[in-house]
Amino acid sequence: MNMIENRRIRLLRQTTIYLTLIAGSLVVFFPLVWTISTSLKTPEQVTVREVQLIPDPVAWENYVDIFDLVPVWRFLKNTLVIASASVFGGLVTCSLAGYAFARILFPGQRVLFFILLATMMLPYVVQLIPIFVIFDRLGWVGTFRPLTVPRLLGHNAFYIFLYRQFFRGLPSELFDAARIDGCTEVGLWWRIAMPNSKPVAAAVGIFAFQFAWTDFLSPLIYLGSKQEMWTIALGLNGLKGFEGMGSTLPMMMVMSIFMIVPMLVIFAFGQKYMVQGVTVSGLKG
Amino acid sequence: MASVQKREIAPSVSVTQPARKRQRWIGYLFILPWFVSMIWFDAIPFGMNLYLGMTDYSVGPIEQANWIGLENFERMLDDDLFRQSLANTIYYIVFSVPLTLILAFSIALLLNTRIRFLGLFRTVYYIPSIIPVVAASIIFLWMFNARAGAINQILYAIGIDPIRWLTNPDYTKITLVIISLWGFGAQMIVFLAALQGIPEQLYEAVAIDGGGLRARLRHIVIPLMTPTIFFNLLVGLIASFQVFTTAYIILGPNGGPLQSGLFYMMHTYNNAFRYFEMGYASAMSFVLFLIILAFTLLMIWTSNRWVYYGDE
Questions:
Q1: Residue B143 and residue A34: Cβ atoms within 8 Å?
Q2: Considering CB atoms only, which of A123, A132, A217 is closest to B244?
Q3: Which of A91, B87, B97, B230 has its CA 20 to 30 A from that of A139?
């Protein structure tokens, strides 16, 4: 009697859990489904009062017409210029610094590492205006440099910290053996540390790209007034200008999808590393 | 043990003095780019921010800025928009931070019940976190549109009158809180990883003592999760104080009707980059920095009362 009762309770509980999770998934996914659906509608279909998830007729031409309305390729090129600087800095400059903090002994290392950690705690808001003033005085506003130079220099304490933690965890024998064989520090970094740290490098590479791809405030401040230098994010925001008329709504959804798809592709391939990166920072932070 | 000994012996035998010295310099060389960036983009800006906050700097050479002491800080007290932006931000934080935390924690608990399709559910819930903020903001801008938006279409279908989510000042902040909840997946992933790290024996111990699910939650899960809760709370708080992009895109730089969605960072942004009141804006960002610092210290200070860090 008790056993059956228990079973029934368990079954009920299981069902509730699954139903909750499925309902939640539908809510979470609905905005994306709606976006895809709207991106395939004609301007007239948009203003209909009823929910209509499968448009009739399907306006595939939106995905062609967008290229006439918005210089998509130019925005993409601009974004990729910034993103490649970001990724290069994340993979090379940051990992070199991480290597030095983890594997080379030099005077002042502890102090410098403390400073590194301190900069991680510094909220962006106190740097925003002075950094703008510095770049403004350098005459760099309206160029890509404010967005590329800091990244190329490895201005990201979090990435350096991730590398440092990982490099420290590698067995010392690997490095000692190579050192005895006369390997230089650069060689050790490139041939021992990096090949053994693919998960971190992958996570940092993805984060660096993701950051450049999605960043809004910095491009807005430095490139906002020069439309030919806009990134995809600025281009998408720029479409909003026509707001009053529903006519550009499908186009905005097409652009949104252009922005989302590369992230989904990267996520599909790099999910493991991204989740690791997010949880490591969360659990050890 | 063996590896520890090796580590101690090997370098002293094999690495000669000059080689070691050379190594050191390489160390400085490796961190040099970061060091330069730290000086130019962390240290100098930090000092400069405080200095600019005491001047009437607008644009042009910094030398032309006049020192006005604490005037900018006094001005904040009389600035209605400053007060409103601070109040709006606090309103947003009070709802967004706890609700996101509770949602992320609850879903993580459900996912941690040895269910099937765990990977699928986890992916589905995490995906909003990887959607670019600009795209998400544009999507929600239209979903919450009073006339053509999907939300009102659904409400209409079930017989509820349309709500002016973005044009009624009573609703703007709530709308932004709802939108912020969509990204709960990032916190959920952290919770889930921590939950999966709880040793099975602890649950068994509760079961032996005759405890049910509630006892598990109360005596095992929540105490062991407090460090993760602490982390997510702190990160969420710091990020929410600086909330900008979503509100800027959805409501515009002025924060929508009656500035009901004007947040602290937007007011700072407007002063700096639209009105070129750089000095005043710097003072405002310094105040926000102090607020964030105070909250961080307060949380760390109170943490030993409720955060469990294991038996150290």
A1: yes
A2: A217
A3: A91
Cα A282 from chain centroid (whole Å): 17
The structure tokens listed for A203 are 């996570």
Angle at B113 (CA atoms; ends B110, B118), nearest 5 degrees: 80
| Domain final residue pick, A34, A59, A84 | A59
Same domain, A129 and A265: yes
pLDDT for B56 equals 96
Q: Which residues contact A90 (CB under 8 A, 6 or more apart)?
A: A151, A154, A156, A159, A204, A205, A207, A208
Q: Are residues A150 and A181 in the same domain?
A: yes
Inter-residue contact A62 to A251 (CB < 8 Å):
yes
Same domain, A74 and A52: no
State whether residue B55 is helix, strand or coil.
Answer: strand
Among A59, A93, A108, give the residue marking a domain's end.
A59
Residues of chain A contacting residue B56, judged by C-beta atoms under 8 Å apart: none
Residues 186-205, chain B, touching A (beta carbon < 8 A): 186, 189-190, 193-194, 197
pTM for this entry: 0.90
Taking only the tens of pLDDT, chain B with its 312 residues reads: 334 333 443 343 344 444 555 567 899 999 999 999 999 999 999 999 999 999 999 988 998 899 999 999 999 999 999 999 999 999 999 999 999 999 999 999 999 988 889 999 999 999 999 999 999 999 999 899 888 788 998 998 899 998 999 999 999 999 999 999 999 999 999 999 999 988 888 888 888 888 788 888 888 899 999 999 999 999 999 999 999 999 999 999 999 999 999 999 999 999 999 999 999 999 999 999 999 999 999 999 998 888 887 654
Closest-CA distance, A100 to chain B, in angstroms, reads 5
Note down the domain range covering A105.
63-284
Query: What's the CATH code of the domain at A165?
Result: 1.10.3720.10
- Using DSSP's 3-state secondary structure scheme, residue B67 falls into strand
Best of A129, A148, A183, A257 to disrupt the B interface (most B CBs within 10 Å) is A129
* Residue A230: DSSP 8-state: -
Q: Which CATH class is domain B71-306?
A: mainly alpha
Residues of A within 8 A of B25 (CB-CB) are 106
Q: In chain A, which residue's Cα lies nearest the Cα of B39?
A: A155
| Dist. CA A28–CA A22, nearest whole Å | 10
CA nearest to A275 within chain B: B189
Average pLDDT over residues A8-34: 93
- Shared domain for A43 and A157, answered yes or no, is no
Q: Tell me the longest C-alpha to C-alpha distance in chain B.
A: 83
Asked if B126 reaches chain A (Cβ–Cβ under 8 Å), the answer is: yes
Inter-chain CB proximity B135 and A259 less than 8 Å: yes
Give B-chain residues touching A17 at CB under 8 angstroms: 110, 113, 115
Tally of domains within chain A:
2
Q: What is the pLDDT of residues A220-276, one digit of tens each?
A: 999 999 999 999 999 999 988 655 555 688 999 999 999 999 999 999 999 888 888
Q: List chain A residues with CB under 8 Å of B27.
A: 100, 104-106, 109, 185
Judge if A37 and A177 occupy the same domain: no
